[in-house]
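Contributing new records

If you add data, match the layout below exactly. Sequence lines come first and carry their own label; structure lines follow with theirs. Keep one chain per record. Anything else will be rejected by the validation script.
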Amino acid sequence: MDAYAAGSLAAFDSLFARLAPRVHAFFVRSFGDVALADDLLQVTFMKLHRARADYRSGSPLRSWLFSIAARVRLDELRRRRRLREDVDAETVERMADGETGGPEVASDRADVATAVRAAVGRLPEGQRVVVHLHRIEGLSFGDIARMLGTTEAAVRQRAFRGYIALRKDLAPLVAAREGVA
């Protein structure tokens, strides 16, 4: 990042190649729309480009980038619901959580990866984002709270509820796999 901030285009190419797939996956998991994820990925990296001079050398780049991505996600949620920019992140998250439909039955329980992705996809938006950032990206609850503009306690609560829902949703799959093993 330091080289990119200093003007190296090769450094940007390297950053993009390394980090874009993870950010793209974050948006796909958030919205379930690959085309939208493509657009939001572009917006995120444009914002990174504009803010490159603000990057503090030695700071964790992935956390900084996901902070930008989390804000882009929040802006998209506000746009979809036609909310003003001053509506706080907690309110937007609660609205997104309330719009998630009921659970769907995974079509192919034999494919564990498919079943887990489907279960995560059925989580309310706020829980899904926290689980993704915590489990997939390996970020701490404190980092996630700062990214989402909320408290660590709220993030822990979303994670706790998400993991409980996943355990419940995936229990038949786990039981079937234990019976096979």
